[in-house]
Structure prediction request, 376 residues.
Amino acid sequence: MGLEHNIDTAHSPDVVEMRALYRAAEARAARLRFIIEARNLLDAQAFETAAPEVLSRLSDFAGASRAELVFPSLHEAAPARLAIGRSMENDGILFASEDGSGLSLTLLGPSRGRGVDADDLKTLEVVAGQLSDACNLERQAAEKQALLGDLERQRSELAALVAQLIQAQEQERQRVALDLHDGSAQLAAGLSYRLQDLAARIGEAHALKPEIDELAALARHSVADLRAAIADLRPPELDDLGVAAALRTRLDAIDGMEVIADLDAGADRWPASAGIIFYRVAQEAITNVIKHAEASRLIVRLFEDGAGEAHLEVIDDGKGIGEGRHPQAEQRGARLGIAGMRERLALLGGRFEIVSGASGGTHVRAAAPLAQETTE
Prediction:
């Protein structure tokens, strides 16, 4: 018995040390569990929902009689305040933390008795940092959402303004077309009829007959040009049938070259502003081909891709855009037309490109998102 007692006595310092190490390991594990649980609470719920539970656990962990948390409110200008427990007369500050964003944490408890040791203070600092991070992240997410909402409202307002601008432009074109139809076109038609009547009355033998016939022919050409201009200003097919049908009508009227039209009928259901702008861009590009390209073939494609973007391609096999063989006035007119096409696409937030084809000619590409119109 005496030998056994001596052995226990000899090993007792090691047992005490092992027990101390075990208790320290348990304390570290408890602190780690506390940190993880607080993190999980903040990750799983909105900050204002999770904060009271985390604050209650902080109070229990530190042995505080009162815990206070002040943080920037997501919904009001004034900071939000949470408090748990009630402070006593002799309470002092066990722990206090404040970050630069306006969040502060204060734990109050008895100033006498067990204090908060260094390891517990580090744990409290970690959880306070978690509270700060969660609050800042939620505030940043709310600010981002608010900015996205503002951007969406601005996009809707811009779409409405674009639609109104395009509508105003088209109304002005329609007014000009009506004025031409009721004014200059009628006068030119009347002049043509009078000249034809005069030529018939004076007879074939009259010396002025050839000149009157020539003037009558010029008058008829003027009437035809005015009617074509009126149709271009506001083609009725654009209102009645849509952009694809209006373009097909325009292409069917072209003589002297091979015309290939690949027009998606779904384009007739595009928003009105997009349909009008793509028609005008195609109209300008086709006019440039007819006037300047000396082409034998014209290809026009109109379609919508899977990403909700409208596309237009106008391809010719003419002499291209880089040869510079046009008179200066025609070059200026072509440049103005290209600038006009770019400006029209820009209204829709679109893209415009005009390049020389791989085997000659010119390739015009236009694309724009098909956003829904919002009008007031």
In short: Residues 118-182 form the longest helix (65 residues).
